[in-house]
Write a structure and sequence with these properties.
By secondary structure, the protein is mainly beta. The protein has 9 helices and 42 strands. It has a domain of 29 residues.
Length: 798
């Protein structure tokens, strides 16, 4: 296959969004060090193996058609003041200027920008075989309109798999080709934040023709107020942002079983992932968002390439005399990535150059690997696996480029021992022990060890004549940057009882990560940057995971199966290399709204990663927080950064829970999946930045809305560092629930028909006050709701 990285391309941020789920045969997750070790550094955060569908060696032509149609609806909005609440608040607390700016309408701006999303995904596949040539051809068309108005996606794709056997079945060929074209219309994401903050007492349309007829806040000179939020509906309607992405993924795998030694197989795998994107952005000159520059009329292009070549062998042999078998694998792998974009000018609608083209963009990196694995099986009772892999990454200097990553694992099938045979209830019992080291080089920079220059941002330009030009600035770099390594230990027990009606596993693990790769803040100066990518320290993760499945009913007409898993994990930083001195509390991280450099988290030795670093809020007798009142931790009579504390609660949950149930009865099927997280906390940055009267607008010539949390606190100014905004974020989510019916053969007994109805994101139970308690990184800046989707799938087999 082709290892796919997690980087997107301009015009398609998520690489997996270009893949067709209907082409997927299996989806396997590898987590422990030994199982994933053969994949080297690409397994640093686990491995997901996606196997696509193939044809069968049959002369019969099989035709399958499926159509999945769904609607998506918004389940909730950011809780802001209604128009009446807003008018009452401004009238009660505002000055004459603010009161004079109030309108007479009642507009729910969030409802104005969202819609019911619709999607249809249609797939046709033809599979079969011609002599020694199994084949599968798949065709797809997907049309999706998002919940944010004006957003749209159209995807067409085709896949082809050929898997012939040649040379009297000594040579097996697996050839795969996938092509996709994706047409995107991107909605203006700025409308989401504007819908939360825009004055609800104003109308959508102003009643005149200026700025496209949309209501906008105007300065005294008649231009749009530069500090005010823009009309959310106008932001959507007046921006046309389109892209086209063409992607081809192809590989050929040759498996040659040697004539002279049948147990020896030689493999060659060559693959390529090519993606080319182009797009355009147009905003009319009359739009308030870009009025001063005369609108936008820009284009962009980007190309990405991912090439892989692997050669390896596998030798399997049975030693029947000692009831043993072994297999040995050894090989070489080379993978090369590149990304390039031509320089484009920044133009307005009239064709005037706002900013001339900078420099063309190009970056590349390569990964070279040598690896070997030995599996030994003694009497189907004792299994030993040893793996050794050496990876070389171009992202590190020649002195630190290569990393050596070993692993070993032992398994004992205890249920095969004679002293367990008499336990009739026991169906299966296996003990597993594992140890291994994996490396991490998946970082955002391809040249972090080299002194180089980058093009400055649009806010760092200089004016020459009437034209702004980009500047070049030296980047921060670390010539000694090296591999991040994680050493993992795990002990596991797989079990089954009563003919495996009860089955599961229990795992205990410990992971020690050294030379952590991370971006840290540094004083700006010699490098013209305030951050640096480097090896910052070490951390440990310890935990346990229990998986349990139960087959309650299993007969010819009915099956009922339950399953679940529980995981607990403890995380702790054990070393930091970059502290200024012993009194340094740690590395400030976790950027939040409220100004450049504002942070709410800290990395400190002896504490979990991303621990919240806050003031301890003081409360009144009625339980309401007192503005600006915090606990003086050191008793010096002054509230300053010395009084910041590490909050007793962190973003990482103490426990993860998963549960599923599947039921079949004759032609009916039904099921559900539930997951949850418990013990984690989230910093509500939406409320901390918008839940105060300062956000209304003061004397800035406009009004802006607040979240309803203002009614609880009556804060006049933001209190960003108060632990009041750190909330419990435990939740249970009903992820999926489905019911289906298989009609069997219909239409003269020639067509198989099945229907399935599904609801995704059906229910969330949580005490968290924000939009969604499931927040990556523990800082909630989210204005975008997670939709609930209702789908109906029709499947026809000919």
């Amino acid at each position: 296959g082709v290892p796919v990285d997690n980087g997107g391309i301009s015009g398609a941020g998520n690489p997996l969004s270009l893949l067709n789920p209907d082409d997927i045969e299996t989806f396997t997750v590898l987590k422990d060090a030994s199982a994933a070790a053969i994949y080297g550094s690409r397994a640093a955060n686990g491995v997901i193996i996606i196997t696509t569908k193939k044809g069968a060696a049959s002369n019969k032509l099989n035709v399958n058609f499926s159509t999945n149609n769904s609607i998506s609806q918004v389940t909730g909005f950011v809780d802001v003041l209604s128009a009446d609440q807003f008018r009452d608040t401004v009238t009660a607390h505002g000055n004459a200027t603010q009161i004079g700016l109030l309108g007479e309408s009642s507009t729910d701006w969030q409802k104005e920008i969202y819609q019911t999303g619709i999607s249809t995904d249609n797939n046709l596949s033809l599979s079969g075989g011609v002599k020694n040539l199994p084949y599968r051809l798949g065709l797809e068309y997907n049309h999706t309109e998002g919940i944010l108005k004006t957003s749209q996606l159209d995807r067409v794709g085709t896949t082809l798999n050929l898997s012939p056997e040649l040379l009297n079945k000594h040579l097996k060929v697996d050839a795969n080709a996938k092509y996709y074209n994706v047409q995107n219309v991107f909605a203006n994401q700025g409308a989401i934040g504007s819908a939360v903050t825009f004055d609800p007492s104003q109308t959508v349309m102003s009643g005149d023709t200026v700025y496209g007829g949309y209501f906008e806040w105007i300065s005294g000179n008649g231009n749009p107020n530069a500090l005010a939020p823009r009309n959310p509906v106008g932001l959507l309607d007046q921006r046309n942002d389109e892209s086209s992405v063409n992607r081809f993924i192809g590989n050929i795998l040759l498996d040659y079983g040697t004539h002279f030694l049948p147990d020896l197989h030689l493999f060659v795998n060559a693959g390529i992932d090519m993606a080319d994107a182009s797009g355009s952005v147009f905003v009319p000159a009359t739009a308030a968002s870009d009025f001063l520059r005369g609108g936008v009329n820009n284009v962009y292009e980007q190309s990405k390439r991912n090439r892989v070549l692997e050669t390896y062998f596998n030798y399997k042999h049975d030693l029947k005399s000692i009831k043993s078998s072994f297999d040995v694998t050894g090989g070489y792998s080379f993978q090369y990535w590149s990304t390039e974009s031509p320089a484009q000018p920044d133009l307005n609608v009239a064709g005037d150059t706002i900013t001339p083209p900078g420099i063309p963009f190009f970056t590349d990196n390569a990964l070279m690997s040598f690896y070997g694995r030995l599996n030994y099986n003694l009497a189907e009772k004792y299994l030993i696996t040893a793996t050794l892999r050496e990876d070389g990454s171009s992202r590190f200097s020649p002195d630190t480029r290569w990393g050596l990553f070993p692993s070993v694992a032992f398994a004992w099938r205890m249920s095969e021992e004679g002293f367990f045979k008499d336990i009739q209830a026991l169906s299966f019992l296996k003990l597993r022990l594992g140890w291994g080291i994996t490396g991490q080089q998946d970082i955002y920079s391809d040249y972090p060890y080299i002194a180089n220059y980058s093009e400055g941002t649009s806010t760092a330009q200089y004016l020459f004549g009437d034209t702004y030009y980009y500047v070049l600035r030296p980047d921060g770099y670390d010539p000694n940057i090296k591999w991040e390594e994680t050493m993992s230990y795990n002990v596991g027990l797989d079990f089954g009882f009563h003919n495996n009606r009860w089955n599961g596993s229990l795992d205990f693990y410990k992971k020690i990560t050294t030379d952590l790769l991370s971006v840290i803040p540094i004083p700006a100066g010699t490098n013209f940057t305030n951050q640096l990518l480097t090896n910052v320290g070490s951390m440990e993760n310890t935990g346990a995971e229990l998986t349990l499945n139960y087959v309650a009913i299993d007969n010819e007409s009915t099956t009922l199966e339950f399953g679940g898993n529980v995981t607990v994990n403890k995380n702790e930083i054990t070393k930091l290399n970059v502290l200024a001195n012993d009194d340094d509390p740690g590395i400030l991280v976790g950027g939040i709204a409220g100004g450049v450099g504002n942070t709410i988290q800290i990395q400190s030795v002896g504490f979990p990663t991303f621990t919240y670093f806050t003031y301890e809020q003081v409360y009144a007798e009625d339980g309401s927080p007192i503005e600006g009142e915090y606990v003086d931790q050191n008793g010096d009579g002054v509230i300053n950064p010395d009084d910041l504390i590490r909050f007793d609660g962190n973003p990482a949950p103490d426990m993860f829970l998963g549960f599923f149930a599947n039921y079949t009865h004759n032609k009916w099927t039904a099921g559900m999946s539930v997951r949850g997280e418990f013990g984690g906390y989230v910093y509500n940055n939406v409320n901390s930045s918008l839940g105060n009267y300062f956000n209304v607008g003061s004397t800035k010539g406009y009004l802006a809305n607040m979240t309803t949390d203002y009614l609880n606190t009556v804060f006049q100014t933001p209190q960003y560092l108060s632990d009041y905004y750190v909330e419990k974020a435990s939740y249970i989510r009903l992820d999926n629930i489905y019911v289906g019916y298989n009609f069997g053969r219909v239409i003269a007994d020639k067509v198989g028909l099945a229907l399935t109805a599904i609801v995704q994101n059906a229910l969330v139970v949580s005490s968290y006050s924000g939009l969604d308690p499931e927040v990556a990184g523990g800082i909630d800046n989210n204005f975008y709701p997670r939709p609930r989707t209702y789908g109906l799938n029709l499947n026809l087999q000919f």
